[in-house]
Design a protein that fits this description.
Structural class: alpha+beta
Number of domains: 3
Strand content: 35-45%
CATH class of the largest domain: Alpha Beta
Shape: elongated
CATH architecture of the largest domain: Roll
Number of helices: 7
Helix content: 10-25%
Length: 374
């Protein structure tokens, strides 16, 4: 293998593909690798683990074809260390040479090593508006479970066909996020798939790097085992999660007895401020107490070690005075996911889940379990 490429373009491709190997443990002392495959002027860089594959294609000045598996972090750092300009790459036997200007690195590689490749669904797929879909992912993925040791199916986001379009649902059993895309058809009627939240986070990141315009489209297709997302020269393939996703629609009541309306950013700022006490607390889940009154809401954090923080916010509250407590991090996640300038918080009982939504933002809902306090 021998080619020349622009340093910045090559580095971006290496970083993108390497995200598939992030957090992957080494096997038998061998660090995760990236596969570089050259055919004519087409270079493909692939990073993978058993459940996620990221492939990046780019045009280079190719001289001789070949395939090589290089150590991810070392090669990425080498290319990052070069000044902007051309980078020459040459692979011979069990060595790969990287050079730019007067700098040169020779990296030893394992001959015949291979990476994991997942199946590729053969259907033509459908196109989704990139920016709109990525915004929905930003709102929903945060609610998925991050540790698969408790309930693996909760580490996924449910993509579900509805009568009106497509719905994304994620829950870690403490909070629940819904996002509806009216008129967006991605699945057959009545069908659903469980896509790992980790893979969808990479799709969201990819869209953010590429463009914020809905003129860009993501191509999505899936089989019974795998799902593929393509945008431009990048393809993300992930193994679907198996298991029964909980029936969460029944958790949202048809109406609420208590309604608080406040400026979203003011509420977020106050929450971040009183949450400072939790930073030094032995219990990072120390709750924030919300006391609702006619003139608005009082936020309070109380810790035995650090003391007490209180802040009042003006707003509109409909209902009798009531107090409810939440994990402050989970609550802030829901507030930050909103797009509306006005936050609406609704509840029926301090011991039951409350709903966080934006005023006029019916397509997104965030349901949050309260925390019991003395």
């Amino acid at each position: 293998m021998r080619f020349r490429a622009d340093r910045d373009t090559l580095l971006e491709a290496l970083v993108t593909a390497s995200r598939a190997t992030a957090g992957r443990s080494s096997l038998a002392g061998v660090a995760p690798g990236l596969q570089l495959s050259l055919r004519a002027s087409n270079l493909e860089i692939v990073g993978s683990d058993p459940d996620l594959v990221i492939e990046v294609r780019l045009q280079v000045a190719g001289e001789s074809d070949g395939t090589v598996l290089v150590p991810t972090r070392l090669v990425t750092d080498i290319v990052r260390s070069f000044d902007s300009g051309a980078v020459a790459v040459a692979g011979v036997d069990e060595e790969v040479r990287f050079s730019a200007g007067r700098a040169e690195f020779v990296v030893r590689v394992a001959a015949g090593a291979e990476i994991t490749r997942l199946g590729s669904p053969e259907n033509s797929g459908i196109e989704l508006p990139a920016a709109t879909f990525a915004e929905g992912l930003r709102q929903v993925v945060r609610a998925a479970l991050t540790d698969d040791s408790r309930a693996p199916q909760l580490t996924a986001v449910q993509m579900k066909a509805t009568e009106k379009g497509l719905r994304l649902i994620a829950t870690d059993s403490y909070r629940l996020a819904f996002r509806d895309f009216e008129g967006m058809s991605a699945l057959e009627d009545g069908s659903q798939v469980l896509v790992p939240a980790r893979a969808l986070a990479e799709v969201q990141r990819l869209v953010g790097q590429a463009s914020e315009s809905d003129e860009d489209r993501i191509t999505f297709r899936h089989s019974d085992l795998d799902a593929v997302f393509e945008l431009g020269d990048v393809r993300i393939t992930t193994r679907l999660v198996r298991g029964q996703f909980p029936d969460v629609d029944r958790l949202v009541p048809p109406s609420y007895a208590y309604h608080l309306t406040v400026p979203r950013e003011d509420f977020a700022t106050a929450l971040r401020r009183v949450r400072l006490l939790v930073r030094d607390s032995k219990d990072i889940t120390t709750p924030v107490r919300l006391s609702f009154r006619g003139h608005g809401v009082e936020l309070q954090v109380l810790t035995p070690e650090s003391g007490r923080a209180v802040e009042e916010l003006e707003g509109d509250f409909d209902g009798d005075e009531v107090m409810i407590a939440f994990n402050p991090g989970y609550l802030l996640d829901g507030v930050e996911a909103l797009r509306s300038d006005v936050l609406v918080l609704e509840l029926n009982d301090p011991g039951k889940p409350a709903l966080v939504r934006g005023e006029g933002e019916d397509e997104y809902r965030y349901l949050l379990m309260p925390v019991k306090v003395a």
